[in-house]
Protein backbone atom coordinates (compact mmCIF):
# COMPACT_ATOMS: atom_id res chain seq x y z
CA UNK A 1 0.00 0.00 0.00
CA UNK A 2 1.12 3.47 -0.82
CA UNK A 3 2.14 5.23 2.38
CA UNK A 4 -0.10 8.12 3.23
CA UNK A 5 1.30 11.55 2.64
CA UNK A 6 2.85 12.93 5.75
CA UNK A 7 0.32 15.67 6.18
CA UNK A 8 -2.66 13.35 6.21
CA UNK A 9 -0.90 11.04 8.66
CA UNK A 10 -0.24 13.85 11.14
CA UNK A 11 -3.74 15.13 10.77
CA UNK A 12 -5.17 11.75 11.62
CA UNK A 13 -2.88 11.40 14.61
CA UNK A 14 -3.95 14.79 15.84
CA UNK A 15 -7.53 13.80 15.45
CA UNK A 16 -7.06 10.62 17.48
CA UNK A 17 -5.10 12.56 20.06
CA UNK A 18 -7.70 15.23 20.46
CA UNK A 19 -10.41 12.60 20.70
CA UNK A 20 -8.46 10.86 23.45
CA UNK A 21 -7.85 14.07 25.29
CA UNK A 22 -11.50 15.13 25.20
CA UNK A 23 -12.36 11.72 26.55
CA UNK A 24 -9.74 12.16 29.22
CA UNK A 25 -10.94 15.61 30.01
CA UNK A 26 -14.48 14.35 30.41
CA UNK A 27 -13.09 11.64 32.71
CA UNK A 28 -11.44 14.27 34.86
CA UNK A 29 -14.57 16.33 34.93
CA UNK A 30 -16.66 13.38 36.06
CA UNK A 31 -14.12 12.48 38.72
CA UNK A 32 -14.08 15.98 40.15
CA UNK A 33 -17.85 16.22 40.12
CA UNK A 34 -18.15 12.89 41.90
CA UNK A 35 -15.63 13.57 44.62
CA UNK A 36 -16.62 17.21 45.07
CA UNK A 37 -19.40 16.85 47.67
CA UNK A 38 -17.40 14.58 49.94
CA UNK A 39 -14.13 16.46 49.52
CA UNK A 40 -15.75 19.84 50.14
CA UNK A 41 -17.57 18.44 53.17
CA UNK A 42 -14.42 16.86 54.54
CA UNK A 43 -12.53 20.06 53.96
CA UNK A 44 -15.07 22.34 55.61
CA UNK A 45 -15.99 20.12 58.56
CA UNK A 46 -12.81 18.13 59.15
CA UNK A 47 -9.60 19.27 57.45
CA UNK A 48 -9.95 22.99 58.02
CA UNK A 49 -11.17 22.51 61.62
CA UNK A 50 -8.10 20.34 62.20
CA UNK A 51 -5.85 23.26 61.25
CA UNK A 52 -7.98 25.64 63.28
CA UNK A 53 -7.64 23.47 66.37
CA UNK A 54 -3.86 23.62 65.98
CA UNK A 55 -4.11 27.38 65.79
CA UNK A 56 -6.51 27.67 68.74
CA UNK A 57 -4.16 25.63 70.88
CA UNK A 58 -1.94 28.73 70.92
CA UNK A 59 -4.73 31.08 72.00
CA UNK A 60 -6.65 32.09 75.06
CA UNK A 61 -10.38 32.73 75.01
CA UNK A 62 -12.33 35.62 76.47
CA UNK A 63 -15.96 35.72 77.47
CA UNK A 64 -17.49 36.75 74.15
CA UNK A 65 -15.79 34.43 71.73
CA UNK A 66 -12.72 36.62 71.40
CA UNK A 67 -9.32 35.06 71.57
CA UNK A 68 -5.72 36.14 71.58
CA UNK A 69 -2.41 34.53 70.75
CA UNK A 70 -0.55 33.38 73.84
CA UNK A 71 2.16 31.26 72.25
CA UNK A 72 3.03 28.04 74.02
CA UNK A 73 1.37 28.94 77.31
CA UNK A 74 -1.38 26.33 76.99
CA UNK A 75 1.23 23.68 76.52
CA UNK A 76 3.41 24.79 79.41
CA UNK A 77 0.28 24.95 81.55
CA UNK A 78 -0.26 21.25 80.86
CA UNK A 79 2.99 20.38 82.56
CA UNK A 80 1.65 21.51 85.91
CA UNK A 81 -1.99 20.56 85.42
CA UNK A 82 -2.66 17.88 88.04
CA UNK A 83 -6.07 17.08 86.57
CA UNK A 84 -4.64 16.46 83.13
CA UNK A 85 -1.97 14.21 84.54
CA UNK A 86 -4.62 12.32 86.48
CA UNK A 87 -6.80 12.02 83.36
CA UNK A 88 -3.85 10.52 81.49
CA UNK A 89 -3.36 8.05 84.30
CA UNK A 90 -7.07 7.17 84.27
CA UNK A 91 -7.10 6.76 80.51
CA UNK A 92 -3.96 4.64 80.75
CA UNK A 93 -5.50 2.32 83.32
CA UNK A 94 -8.67 2.16 81.25
CA UNK A 95 -6.70 1.20 78.13
CA UNK A 96 -4.47 -1.32 79.87
CA UNK A 97 -7.53 -3.08 81.29
CA UNK A 98 -10.09 -2.86 78.49
CA UNK A 99 -7.89 -3.57 75.48
CA UNK A 100 -6.06 -6.78 76.51
CA UNK A 101 -8.90 -8.19 78.57
CA UNK A 102 -11.47 -7.28 75.94
CA UNK A 103 -9.40 -8.92 73.22
CA UNK A 104 -8.77 -12.01 75.33
CA UNK A 105 -12.45 -12.50 76.13
CA UNK A 106 -13.64 -11.88 72.61
CA UNK A 107 -11.10 -14.35 71.20
CA UNK A 108 -12.26 -16.87 73.78
CA UNK A 109 -15.90 -16.46 72.79
CA UNK A 110 -15.03 -16.48 69.08
CA UNK A 111 -13.03 -19.71 69.42
CA UNK A 112 -15.84 -21.38 71.34
CA UNK A 113 -18.40 -20.24 68.78
CA UNK A 114 -16.21 -21.57 65.99
CA UNK A 115 -16.58 -25.13 67.33
CA UNK A 116 -19.03 -27.63 65.93
CA UNK A 117 -21.80 -27.05 68.43
CA UNK A 118 -25.48 -26.24 68.27
CA UNK A 119 -26.95 -22.83 68.90
CA UNK A 120 -24.04 -20.71 67.75
CA UNK A 121 -26.37 -18.22 66.05
CA UNK A 122 -28.28 -17.61 69.26
CA UNK A 123 -25.11 -17.16 71.29
CA UNK A 124 -23.70 -14.80 68.69
CA UNK A 125 -26.87 -12.71 68.80
CA UNK A 126 -26.82 -12.49 72.59
CA UNK A 127 -23.16 -11.48 72.78
CA UNK A 128 -23.76 -8.89 70.09
CA UNK A 129 -26.69 -7.20 71.85
CA UNK A 130 -24.64 -4.58 73.77
CA UNK A 131 -22.98 -3.49 70.51
CA UNK A 132 -26.23 -2.18 69.08
CA UNK A 133 -27.29 -0.61 72.36
CA UNK A 134 -26.95 3.09 73.03
CA UNK A 135 -24.08 3.70 75.50
CA UNK A 136 -26.30 6.16 77.37
CA UNK A 137 -28.81 3.38 78.03
CA UNK A 138 -26.07 0.90 78.90
CA UNK A 139 -24.69 3.40 81.39
CA UNK A 140 -28.10 3.86 82.92
CA UNK A 141 -28.87 0.18 83.50
CA UNK A 142 -25.41 -0.54 84.91
CA UNK A 143 -25.67 2.45 87.16
CA UNK A 144 -28.82 0.87 88.49
CA UNK A 145 -27.21 -2.56 88.89
CA UNK A 146 -24.27 -0.93 90.66
CA UNK A 147 -26.50 1.17 92.94
CA UNK A 148 -25.08 0.67 96.43
CA UNK A 149 -28.40 0.82 98.28
CA UNK A 150 -30.88 -0.94 96.02
CA UNK A 151 -28.69 -2.36 93.30
CA UNK A 152 -28.97 -6.00 92.38
CA UNK A 153 -25.24 -6.60 92.32
CA UNK A 154 -24.64 -5.88 95.97
CA UNK A 155 -27.74 -7.87 96.86
CA UNK A 156 -26.33 -10.90 95.04
CA UNK A 157 -22.96 -10.39 96.71
CA UNK A 158 -24.64 -10.38 100.10
CA UNK A 159 -25.60 -14.03 99.51
CA UNK A 160 -21.95 -15.03 99.56
CA UNK A 161 -21.31 -12.86 102.56
CA UNK A 162 -19.65 -9.96 100.81
CA UNK A 163 -20.67 -6.45 101.61
CA UNK A 164 -20.65 -4.84 98.18
CA UNK A 165 -18.66 -1.63 97.75
CA UNK A 166 -19.89 1.72 96.50
CA UNK A 167 -19.19 0.83 92.91
CA UNK A 168 -19.46 4.27 91.38
CA UNK A 169 -18.72 6.64 94.22
CA UNK A 170 -15.67 5.03 95.80
CA UNK A 171 -12.74 6.77 94.06
CA UNK A 172 -10.62 3.61 94.22
CA UNK A 173 -13.20 1.42 92.55
CA UNK A 174 -15.28 3.61 90.23
CA UNK A 175 -12.87 3.48 87.31
CA UNK A 176 -12.79 -0.31 87.41
CA UNK A 177 -16.57 -0.48 87.58
CA UNK A 178 -16.70 1.54 84.36
CA UNK A 179 -14.00 -0.62 82.82
CA UNK A 180 -16.09 -3.73 83.47
CA UNK A 181 -19.04 -2.19 81.65
CA UNK A 182 -16.82 -1.12 78.75
CA UNK A 183 -15.48 -4.65 78.37
CA UNK A 184 -18.97 -6.10 78.64
CA UNK A 185 -20.26 -3.87 75.88
CA UNK A 186 -17.28 -4.36 73.57
CA UNK A 187 -16.93 -8.15 73.51
CA UNK A 188 -19.58 -8.70 70.84
CA UNK A 189 -18.03 -6.33 68.34
CA UNK A 190 -14.55 -7.82 68.46
CA UNK A 191 -15.95 -11.33 68.68
CA UNK A 192 -17.62 -10.92 65.29
CA UNK A 193 -14.38 -9.70 63.72
CA UNK A 194 -12.38 -12.54 65.27
CA UNK A 195 -14.99 -15.06 64.22
CA UNK A 196 -14.71 -14.04 60.59
CA UNK A 197 -10.93 -14.23 60.97
CA UNK A 198 -11.17 -17.73 62.42
CA UNK A 199 -13.42 -18.86 59.60
CA UNK A 200 -10.71 -17.82 57.18
CA UNK A 201 -8.22 -20.35 58.63
CA UNK A 202 -8.18 -23.46 56.41
CA UNK A 203 -9.57 -26.56 58.15
CA UNK A 204 -6.79 -28.66 56.61
CA UNK A 205 -4.25 -27.10 58.96
CA UNK A 206 -6.10 -28.49 61.95
CA UNK A 207 -6.59 -31.86 60.31
CA UNK A 208 -2.89 -32.14 59.58
CA UNK A 209 -2.02 -31.13 63.14
CA UNK A 210 -4.49 -33.62 64.54
CA UNK A 211 -2.83 -36.38 62.55
CA UNK A 212 0.46 -35.37 64.08
CA UNK A 213 -1.19 -35.87 67.44
CA UNK A 214 -1.50 -32.23 68.47
CA UNK A 215 -4.02 -31.46 71.20
CA UNK A 216 -6.45 -28.54 71.16
CA UNK A 217 -4.18 -26.34 73.27
CA UNK A 218 -1.16 -26.87 71.01
CA UNK A 219 -3.33 -26.23 67.96
CA UNK A 220 -4.59 -23.02 69.47
CA UNK A 221 -1.11 -21.67 70.14
CA UNK A 222 0.59 -23.05 67.03
CA UNK A 223 -2.12 -22.54 64.41
CA UNK A 224 -5.00 -20.35 65.56
CA UNK A 225 -3.09 -17.62 67.31
CA UNK A 226 -0.37 -17.04 64.66
CA UNK A 227 -2.89 -17.11 61.80
CA UNK A 228 -5.22 -14.80 63.69
CA UNK A 229 -2.44 -12.37 64.56
CA UNK A 230 -3.12 -9.90 61.71
CA UNK A 231 -6.72 -9.62 62.92
CA UNK A 232 -5.57 -9.29 66.54
CA UNK A 233 -3.24 -6.53 65.44
CA UNK A 234 -6.01 -4.69 63.62
CA UNK A 235 -8.44 -5.06 66.52
CA UNK A 236 -5.85 -3.93 69.04
CA UNK A 237 -5.12 -0.76 67.08
CA UNK A 238 -8.80 0.05 66.68
CA UNK A 239 -9.61 -0.75 70.33
CA UNK A 240 -6.73 1.37 71.50
CA UNK A 241 -7.81 4.38 69.47
CA UNK A 242 -11.37 3.88 70.69
CA UNK A 243 -10.29 3.48 74.29
CA UNK A 244 -8.31 6.70 74.15
CA UNK A 245 -11.52 8.53 73.41
CA UNK A 246 -13.78 7.05 76.05
CA UNK A 247 -16.35 9.49 77.31
CA UNK A 248 -20.01 8.40 77.19
CA UNK A 249 -19.90 5.98 80.11
CA UNK A 250 -18.09 8.37 82.47
CA UNK A 251 -20.33 11.22 81.47
CA UNK A 252 -23.48 9.20 82.19
CA UNK A 253 -22.35 7.14 85.18
CA UNK A 254 -20.30 9.54 87.29
CA UNK A 255 -22.12 12.61 88.51
CA UNK A 256 -20.38 15.94 88.22
CA UNK A 257 -20.21 16.39 91.96
CA UNK A 258 -18.98 12.88 92.66
CA UNK A 259 -15.82 12.40 94.68
CA UNK A 260 -14.89 9.71 92.18
CA UNK A 261 -14.86 12.09 89.23
CA UNK A 262 -11.22 13.01 89.61
CA UNK A 263 -10.19 9.37 89.53
CA UNK A 264 -12.36 8.48 86.55
CA UNK A 265 -12.31 11.43 84.17
CA UNK A 266 -10.61 10.66 80.89
CA UNK A 267 -8.63 12.95 78.61
CA UNK A 268 -11.66 13.45 76.41
CA UNK A 269 -13.86 14.18 79.40
CA UNK A 270 -11.42 16.89 80.43
CA UNK A 271 -11.41 18.20 76.87
CA UNK A 272 -15.20 18.39 76.94
CA UNK A 273 -15.16 20.21 80.28
CA UNK A 274 -12.67 22.82 79.14
CA UNK A 275 -14.22 23.30 75.70
CA UNK A 276 -17.92 23.38 76.45
CA UNK A 277 -18.41 23.88 80.17
CA UNK A 278 -15.55 26.11 81.29
CA UNK A 279 -15.25 28.02 77.99
CA UNK A 280 -11.52 27.47 78.16
CA UNK A 281 -11.36 26.69 74.46
CA UNK A 282 -7.71 27.40 73.84
CA UNK A 283 -6.63 24.95 76.48
CA UNK A 284 -9.20 22.42 75.23
CA UNK A 285 -7.70 22.71 71.76
CA UNK A 286 -4.26 22.05 73.20
CA UNK A 287 -5.60 18.93 74.95
CA UNK A 288 -7.07 17.72 71.64
CA UNK A 289 -3.73 18.25 69.90
CA UNK A 290 -1.93 16.40 72.67
CA UNK A 291 -4.39 13.53 72.33
CA UNK A 292 -3.73 13.39 68.60
CA UNK A 293 0.03 13.33 69.13
CA UNK A 294 -0.16 10.61 71.77
CA UNK A 295 -2.43 8.43 69.60
CA UNK A 296 -0.11 8.88 66.61
CA UNK A 297 2.98 7.97 68.63
CA UNK A 298 1.36 4.87 70.09
CA UNK A 299 0.05 3.76 66.71
CA UNK A 300 3.53 4.16 65.22
CA UNK A 301 5.00 2.10 68.08
CA UNK A 302 2.40 -0.59 67.50
CA UNK A 303 3.18 -0.61 63.80
CA UNK A 304 6.86 -1.02 64.56
CA UNK A 305 6.26 -3.78 67.09
CA UNK A 306 3.96 -5.73 64.81
CA UNK A 307 6.88 -7.23 62.90
CA UNK A 308 7.78 -9.11 66.05
CA UNK A 309 4.49 -10.90 66.50
CA UNK A 310 2.17 -10.52 63.53
CA UNK A 311 2.39 -13.26 60.90
CA UNK A 312 1.33 -12.49 57.37
CA UNK A 313 1.24 -15.34 54.89
CA UNK B 1 -13.97 -45.44 71.22
CA UNK B 2 -16.45 -45.16 74.07
CA UNK B 3 -13.99 -42.96 75.88
CA UNK B 4 -13.50 -40.55 73.00
CA UNK B 5 -17.25 -40.08 72.58
CA UNK B 6 -17.43 -39.29 76.25
CA UNK B 7 -14.60 -36.84 75.86
CA UNK B 8 -16.34 -35.07 72.99
CA UNK B 9 -19.56 -34.97 74.98
CA UNK B 10 -17.98 -33.49 78.05
CA UNK B 11 -16.07 -31.01 75.90
CA UNK B 12 -19.28 -29.91 74.19
CA UNK B 13 -20.92 -29.66 77.58
CA UNK B 14 -18.10 -27.48 78.89
CA UNK B 15 -18.29 -25.16 75.85
CA UNK B 16 -22.03 -24.76 76.27
CA UNK B 17 -21.59 -24.17 79.97
CA UNK B 18 -19.11 -21.33 79.42
CA UNK B 19 -21.17 -19.80 76.62
CA UNK B 20 -24.38 -19.95 78.62
CA UNK B 21 -22.79 -18.31 81.64
CA UNK B 22 -21.51 -15.59 79.34
CA UNK B 23 -24.90 -15.21 77.68
CA UNK B 24 -26.55 -14.68 81.04
CA UNK B 25 -24.09 -11.90 81.84
CA UNK B 26 -24.76 -10.38 78.41
CA UNK B 27 -28.53 -10.65 78.55
CA UNK B 28 -29.30 -10.01 82.18
CA UNK B 29 -28.88 -6.21 82.20
CA UNK B 30 -31.49 -6.02 79.43
CA UNK B 31 -33.88 -8.25 81.34
CA UNK B 32 -33.35 -6.18 84.45
CA UNK B 33 -33.95 -3.01 82.46
CA UNK B 34 -37.33 -4.30 81.26
CA UNK B 35 -38.34 -5.73 84.65
CA UNK B 36 -37.44 -2.52 86.47
CA UNK B 37 -39.29 -0.44 83.90
CA UNK B 38 -42.49 -2.25 84.87
CA UNK B 39 -42.17 -1.77 88.63
CA UNK B 40 -43.60 0.85 90.92
CA UNK B 41 -41.03 3.14 92.47
CA UNK B 42 -41.62 1.47 95.85
CA UNK B 43 -41.02 -1.97 94.35
CA UNK B 44 -37.81 -0.82 92.74
CA UNK B 45 -36.24 0.17 96.04
CA UNK B 46 -37.50 -2.74 98.07
CA UNK B 47 -34.93 -4.88 99.89
CA UNK B 48 -34.71 -7.75 99.11
CA UNK B 49 -35.34 -6.75 95.50
CA UNK B 50 -38.59 -7.67 93.81
CA UNK B 51 -37.77 -9.75 90.74
CA UNK B 52 -41.11 -9.79 88.94
CA UNK B 53 -43.34 -6.77 89.58
CA UNK B 54 -46.77 -7.56 90.98
CA UNK B 55 -48.66 -5.48 88.44
CA UNK B 56 -46.90 -4.44 85.29
CA UNK B 57 -46.71 -0.68 85.46
CA UNK B 58 -47.16 0.15 81.78
CA UNK B 59 -47.92 3.69 82.84
CA UNK B 60 -44.19 4.19 83.45
CA UNK B 61 -43.84 4.24 79.68
CA UNK B 62 -46.70 6.66 79.37
CA UNK B 63 -45.03 8.83 81.95
CA UNK B 64 -41.78 8.99 79.98
CA UNK B 65 -43.70 10.54 77.12
CA UNK B 66 -45.41 13.10 79.34
CA UNK B 67 -42.36 14.04 81.43
CA UNK B 68 -40.29 14.84 78.40
CA UNK B 69 -41.10 15.24 74.71
CA UNK B 70 -39.79 11.73 74.21
CA UNK B 71 -41.71 11.17 71.02
CA UNK B 72 -40.05 14.26 69.60
CA UNK B 73 -36.64 12.86 70.60
CA UNK B 74 -37.46 9.65 68.79
CA UNK B 75 -38.52 11.45 65.64
CA UNK B 76 -35.41 13.64 65.76
CA UNK B 77 -33.15 10.65 66.14
CA UNK B 78 -34.97 8.88 63.36
CA UNK B 79 -34.61 11.84 60.99
CA UNK B 80 -30.94 12.29 61.84
CA UNK B 81 -30.24 8.60 61.33
CA UNK B 82 -32.07 8.35 58.01
CA UNK B 83 -30.56 11.51 56.53
CA UNK B 84 -27.02 10.76 57.63
CA UNK B 85 -27.20 7.18 56.40
CA UNK B 86 -28.75 8.01 53.04
CA UNK B 87 -26.37 10.93 52.58
CA UNK B 88 -23.27 8.96 53.43
CA UNK B 89 -24.23 6.02 51.27
CA UNK B 90 -24.71 8.27 48.26
CA UNK B 91 -21.86 10.76 48.74
CA UNK B 92 -19.25 8.25 49.92
CA UNK B 93 -20.00 5.79 47.16
CA UNK B 94 -19.87 8.56 44.57
CA UNK B 95 -16.45 9.69 45.74
CA UNK B 96 -15.27 6.13 46.28
CA UNK B 97 -16.14 5.22 42.69
CA UNK B 98 -14.11 8.13 41.33
CA UNK B 99 -11.14 7.35 43.57
CA UNK B 100 -11.21 3.67 42.67
CA UNK B 101 -12.07 3.77 38.99
CA UNK B 102 -11.00 7.02 37.35
CA UNK B 103 -7.44 8.22 36.92
CA UNK B 104 -7.31 11.99 37.35
CA UNK B 105 -4.73 14.58 38.31
CA UNK B 106 -4.43 15.02 42.06
CA UNK B 107 -6.12 11.73 42.86
CA UNK B 108 -3.52 10.45 45.28
CA UNK B 109 -3.08 13.76 47.03
CA UNK B 110 -6.81 14.18 47.55
CA UNK B 111 -7.18 10.63 48.74
CA UNK B 112 -4.40 11.01 51.27
CA UNK B 113 -6.06 14.19 52.51
CA UNK B 114 -9.32 12.30 53.01
CA UNK B 115 -7.49 9.49 54.76
CA UNK B 116 -5.78 11.87 57.15
CA UNK B 117 -9.21 12.59 58.62
CA UNK B 118 -9.42 8.91 59.55
CA UNK B 119 -6.25 9.04 61.60
CA UNK B 120 -7.34 11.94 63.75
CA UNK B 121 -9.45 11.57 66.91
CA UNK B 122 -12.84 13.28 66.61
CA UNK B 123 -12.17 15.77 69.40
CA UNK B 124 -9.68 17.57 67.19
CA UNK B 125 -12.55 18.69 64.93
CA UNK B 126 -15.15 19.40 67.57
CA UNK B 127 -14.39 22.95 68.63
CA UNK B 128 -14.18 24.50 65.16
CA UNK B 129 -17.18 22.43 64.04
CA UNK B 130 -19.11 23.87 66.95
CA UNK B 131 -18.04 27.37 65.96
CA UNK B 132 -19.18 26.79 62.38
CA UNK B 133 -22.59 25.84 63.77
CA UNK B 134 -22.66 29.00 65.88
CA UNK B 135 -21.79 31.11 62.86
CA UNK B 136 -24.43 29.48 60.69
CA UNK B 137 -26.97 29.96 63.47
CA UNK B 138 -27.61 26.21 63.45
CA UNK B 139 -27.45 25.55 67.20
CA UNK B 140 -30.54 23.70 68.36
CA UNK B 141 -31.45 22.56 64.89
CA UNK B 142 -31.36 19.10 63.40
CA UNK B 143 -29.15 20.12 60.51
CA UNK B 144 -26.37 20.82 63.01
CA UNK B 145 -26.36 17.11 63.80
CA UNK B 146 -27.05 15.92 60.27
CA UNK B 147 -24.79 17.97 58.01
CA UNK B 148 -21.29 17.21 59.37
CA UNK B 149 -22.32 13.56 59.48
CA UNK B 150 -23.03 13.42 55.75
CA UNK B 151 -19.34 13.27 54.89
CA UNK B 152 -17.21 10.37 55.90
CA UNK B 153 -13.61 9.54 55.18
CA UNK B 154 -14.20 6.11 56.64
CA UNK B 155 -17.11 5.40 54.32
CA UNK B 156 -15.22 6.64 51.29
CA UNK B 157 -12.27 4.45 52.17
CA UNK B 158 -14.40 1.38 52.84
CA UNK B 159 -16.35 1.63 49.59
CA UNK B 160 -13.26 2.43 47.56
CA UNK B 161 -11.84 -0.92 48.68
CA UNK B 162 -15.01 -2.52 47.39
CA UNK B 163 -14.97 -0.81 44.01
CA UNK B 164 -11.31 -1.64 43.53
CA UNK B 165 -12.08 -5.32 43.85
CA UNK B 166 -14.60 -5.35 41.00
CA UNK B 167 -13.53 -6.57 37.53
CA UNK B 168 -12.58 -3.94 34.95
CA UNK B 169 -14.29 -5.63 32.00
CA UNK B 170 -17.77 -4.63 33.09
CA UNK B 171 -16.87 -1.03 32.99
CA UNK B 172 -15.13 -1.22 29.63
CA UNK B 173 -18.14 -2.86 28.05
CA UNK B 174 -20.38 -0.16 29.44
CA UNK B 175 -18.06 2.55 28.16
CA UNK B 176 -18.16 1.07 24.66
CA UNK B 177 -21.93 1.24 24.88
CA UNK B 178 -21.53 4.96 25.47
CA UNK B 179 -22.33 5.08 29.21
CA UNK B 180 -20.86 7.99 31.09
CA UNK B 181 -19.22 7.58 34.48
CA UNK B 182 -22.32 8.39 36.45
CA UNK B 183 -24.29 5.77 34.56
CA UNK B 184 -21.57 3.18 35.11
CA UNK B 185 -21.48 4.04 38.79
CA UNK B 186 -25.23 4.02 39.22
CA UNK B 187 -26.22 1.05 37.05
CA UNK B 188 -23.25 -1.28 37.27
CA UNK B 189 -20.97 -0.56 40.19
CA UNK B 190 -23.47 0.35 42.89
CA UNK B 191 -25.45 -2.91 42.68
CA UNK B 192 -22.20 -4.89 42.81
CA UNK B 193 -20.98 -3.07 45.90
CA UNK B 194 -24.09 -3.99 47.86
CA UNK B 195 -22.30 -5.79 50.73
CA UNK B 196 -20.11 -2.74 51.24
CA UNK B 197 -23.10 -0.41 51.14
CA UNK B 198 -24.95 -2.53 53.69
CA UNK B 199 -21.91 -2.56 55.95
CA UNK B 200 -21.51 1.21 55.79
CA UNK B 201 -25.25 1.69 56.20
CA UNK B 202 -25.40 -0.37 59.36
CA UNK B 203 -22.33 1.30 60.76
CA UNK B 204 -23.79 4.74 60.15
CA UNK B 205 -27.20 3.81 61.53
CA UNK B 206 -25.71 2.54 64.79
CA UNK B 207 -23.42 5.52 65.14
CA UNK B 208 -26.17 8.06 64.40
CA UNK B 209 -28.71 6.47 66.68
CA UNK B 210 -26.38 6.08 69.63
CA UNK B 211 -24.08 9.10 69.45
CA UNK B 212 -23.99 11.32 72.52
CA UNK B 213 -21.32 14.01 72.48
CA UNK B 214 -21.90 15.96 69.28
CA UNK B 215 -25.71 16.17 69.53
CA UNK B 216 -25.30 17.19 73.15
CA UNK B 217 -22.92 19.99 72.24
CA UNK B 218 -25.01 21.52 69.47
CA UNK B 219 -28.55 20.82 70.69
CA UNK B 220 -29.60 21.57 74.21
CA UNK B 221 -33.22 22.50 73.53
CA UNK B 222 -35.73 19.63 73.68
CA UNK B 223 -37.01 20.60 70.25
CA UNK B 224 -33.90 19.29 68.54
CA UNK B 225 -32.61 16.74 71.05
CA UNK B 226 -31.80 13.20 70.09
CA UNK B 227 -32.56 10.18 72.26
CA UNK B 228 -29.10 9.79 73.78
CA UNK B 229 -29.13 13.41 74.91
CA UNK B 230 -32.74 13.03 76.01
CA UNK B 231 -31.77 10.10 78.22
CA UNK B 232 -29.05 12.14 79.81
CA UNK B 233 -31.50 14.93 80.58
CA UNK B 234 -34.04 12.40 81.85
CA UNK B 235 -31.37 11.22 84.23
CA UNK B 236 -30.67 14.79 85.27
CA UNK B 237 -34.32 15.31 86.19
CA UNK B 238 -35.37 11.94 87.58
CA UNK B 239 -32.01 10.85 88.95
CA UNK B 240 -33.17 8.02 91.20
CA UNK B 241 -36.54 7.10 89.77
CA UNK B 242 -35.20 4.00 88.11
CA UNK B 243 -38.49 2.58 86.81
CA UNK B 244 -38.90 5.74 84.74
CA UNK B 245 -35.25 5.81 83.70
CA UNK B 246 -35.35 2.17 82.65
CA UNK B 247 -38.53 2.71 80.67
CA UNK B 248 -36.86 5.59 78.87
CA UNK B 249 -33.72 3.56 78.24
CA UNK B 250 -35.67 0.64 76.89
CA UNK B 251 -37.64 2.89 74.56
CA UNK B 252 -34.39 4.42 73.30
CA UNK B 253 -32.89 1.00 72.65
CA UNK B 254 -35.97 -0.71 71.25
CA UNK B 255 -35.85 0.54 67.63
CA UNK B 256 -32.25 -0.67 67.18
CA UNK B 257 -33.16 -3.92 68.87
CA UNK B 258 -36.00 -4.52 66.43
CA UNK B 259 -33.84 -3.57 63.47
CA UNK B 260 -31.11 -5.91 64.70
CA UNK B 261 -33.50 -8.81 65.11
CA UNK B 262 -34.81 -8.32 61.58
CA UNK B 263 -31.42 -7.76 59.95
CA UNK B 264 -29.23 -9.91 62.17
CA UNK B 265 -27.21 -11.44 59.38
CA UNK B 266 -26.55 -8.08 57.74
CA UNK B 267 -25.55 -6.50 61.05
CA UNK B 268 -23.04 -9.17 61.86
CA UNK B 269 -21.63 -9.46 58.35
CA UNK B 270 -21.52 -5.70 58.08
CA UNK B 271 -19.48 -5.37 61.25
CA UNK B 272 -17.19 -8.18 60.12
CA UNK B 273 -16.61 -6.31 56.85
CA UNK B 274 -15.88 -2.95 58.45
CA UNK B 275 -13.48 -4.61 60.84
CA UNK B 276 -12.00 -7.39 58.78
CA UNK B 277 -11.27 -5.53 55.55
From TrEMBL, chain A:
<keyword id="KW-1133">Transmembrane helix</keyword>
<feature type="domain" description="ABC transmembrane type-1">
    <location>
        <begin position="88"/>
        <end position="302"/>
    </location>
</feature>
<dbReference type="GO" id="GO:0005886">
    <property type="term" value="C:plasma membrane"/>
</dbReference>
<keyword id="KW-1003">Cell membrane</keyword>
<dbReference type="InterPro" id="IPR000515">
    <property type="entry name" value="MetI-like"/>
</dbReference>
<keyword id="KW-0472">Membrane</keyword>
<keyword id="KW-0813">Transport</keyword>
<feature type="transmembrane region" description="Helical">
    <location>
        <begin position="125"/>
        <end position="145"/>
    </location>
</feature>
<dbReference type="InterPro" id="IPR035906">
    <property type="entry name" value="MetI-like_sf"/>
</dbReference>
<feature type="transmembrane region" description="Helical">
    <location>
        <begin position="29"/>
        <end position="48"/>
    </location>
</feature>
<dbReference type="GO" id="GO:0055085">
    <property type="term" value="P:transmembrane transport"/>
</dbReference>
<keyword id="KW-0812">Transmembrane</keyword>
<feature type="transmembrane region" description="Helical">
    <location>
        <begin position="283"/>
        <end position="305"/>
    </location>
</feature>
<feature type="transmembrane region" description="Helical">
    <location>
        <begin position="173"/>
        <end position="198"/>
    </location>
</feature>
<dbReference type="InterPro" id="IPR051393">
    <property type="entry name" value="ABC_transporter_permease"/>
</dbReference>
<feature type="transmembrane region" description="Helical">
    <location>
        <begin position="93"/>
        <end position="113"/>
    </location>
</feature>
<feature type="transmembrane region" description="Helical">
    <location>
        <begin position="219"/>
        <end position="247"/>
    </location>
</feature>
<comment type="similarity">
    <text>Belongs to the binding-protein-dependent transport system permease family.</text>
</comment>
<dbReference type="Pfam" id="PF00528">
    <property type="entry name" value="BPD_transp_1"/>
</dbReference>
<protein>
    <submittedName>
        <fullName>Sugar ABC transporter permease</fullName>
    </submittedName>
</protein>
